[in-house]
Write a structure and sequence with these properties.
Blueprint: E1 2-7, E2 10-17, E3 20-28, E4 39-46, H1 56-66, H2 74-87
Antiparallel strand pairs: 1-2, 2-3, 3-4
């Protein structure tokens, strides 16, 4: 993963999967439970052709890589929820 650009609540990054370059856009979302995902896929594109040719498994592997696998303390969950509501 490289070349990160934050645009509002969307994080855009370049990712190499099987030696092919892609650009992904992911959106931050507040975790609602201790082991919840904090990033969701907005879009992706193969840089050389503009195609969306990844399998569901490859996309899931990417999302799993960017989402933390930790138990969030309740204070972090409350803060994240407050920040998302404040931004709206």
């Amino acid at each position: 993963m490289s070349k990160f650009i934050l645009h509002g609540d969307i994080l855009i990054m370049n990712v190499k999967i099987d030696d092919v370059d892609y650009t992904f856009g992911i959106r931050w979302k507040a975790p609602k439970k201790p082991y919840d995902e904090t990033w969701e896929l907005v879009s992706y594109v193969k840089n050389s052709t503009g195609e969306k040719d990844l399998s569901e498994e490859q996309i899931k592997k990417f999302i799993d890589a960017v989402n933390p696998k930790m138990k969030f303390p309740s204070s972090v969950l409350k803060l994240a929820s407050w920040l998302v509501k404040r931004k709206s």
